[in-house]
Amino acid sequence: MTGPIAVPTNARSRRTRAALLSAARTLLEEHGPAAMTMGAAAELAGVSRRSVYLHFATRADLLVALYDHVYEAEGLTDSLRPVLDAPDPVTALQEFAAHLGRIRPRVRAVATAIQQQRRSDPDLAAHWDVVARDQRRLCHRLIEALHREGSLADSWTVAGATDMLWALMSNDLMDNLTIDCGWSIDRYADHLATLMRTTFVAETAPGHG
Fold first, then answer.
1. What angle do CA 63, 130, 163 make, to 5 degrees?
2. Cβ(65)–Cβ(4) below 8 Å
3. Strand pairing partners for 152?
4. Is 86 helix (H, G, I), strand (E, B) or coil?
5. Is 24 in contact with 62 (CB distance < 8 Å)?
6. What are the pLDDT digits (tens) for 21-70?
7. Could you name the CATH architecture of 75-200?
8. What angle do CA 204, 206, 207 make, to 5 degrees?
9. Domain boundaries defined on the chain
């Protein structure tokens, strides 16, 4: 995986890079992955096609940089803070569902594009492997905390519960409910919290029910 060229320190170059990322996001969110080409991004950003390649060696590099850009712009760190600062594991699990309800709709387009295209692009596959490991690490942290407190339901091992919690993060699950079934994001997040609590938390755990 080549990876995007280092973020420039020159002010003009930073503006060009930001314009290209903004253009790429607009193309992706408004017209779909096929519309997000290097040439289209350059045209919408008002820069030369050569400028795109000075910042991003390939379309995959542009998409990876866009993923990081969108998550930062939409406040991933702030959205996760209530999860990491929760006073107990059960509350952390509920806050995790709320976090997914907040962040996933904002980043749906770029996350879905990478997830779908990783099957045919080794660079995007490598990036998705990193993303998946980070997600699973967080899921393991939440499940392990339940286990340490004695609040993990008896039917689960830590490994199995981590796998299932990670699976519940699926973009497809959210899309099936909010797009195909017409659920609101609030309904999705509320029912996801209930599902996580009743699935993973022992009935005798503090805060259950």
1. 125
2. yes
3. 201
4. coil
5. yes
6. 999 999 999 999 999 999 999 999 999 999 899 999 999 999 999 999 99
7. Orthogonal Bundle (1.10)
8. 115
9. 11-72, 75-200
Which amino acid makes up residue 172?
Answer: D
How many Å apart are CA 131 and CA 200, to the nearest integer? 23
11-72 homologous superfamily: Homeodomain-like (1.10.10.60)
d(CA 109, CA 121) in angstroms, rounded, equals: 17
Instruction: Report how far residue 166's alpha carbon sits from residue 135's, in angstroms, rounded to the nearest whole number.
Output: 7
> What sections of the chain are H helices per DSSP?
11-31, 38-45, 49-55, 59-73, 76-84, 89-117, 122-149, 158-167, 171-175, 185-200
| pTM of the predicted structure, to 2 decimals | 0.86
How is 32-77 classified by DSSP, letter by letter? -GGG--HHHHHHHHTS-HHHHHHH-SSHHHHHHHHHHHHHHHTTHH
Q: Which residue is listed with tokens 């749906």?
A: 108
Look up residue 154 and give its DSSP letter. T
Distance from chain centroid for Cα 9? 27
Helix (H, G, I), strand (E, B) or coil at 164: helix
Residue ranges for the chain with pLDDT beneath 70:
1-9, 205-209
Q: Which two tokens stand for residue 139?
A: 């899921």
Q: Which residue has the tokens 């594991």?
A: 89
DSSP code at position 3: -
Reported as half-sphere exposure (CB side, CA atoms, 13 A), residue 203 has a value of 1
Q: What are phi and psi of 152, to 5 degrees?
A: -80, 130
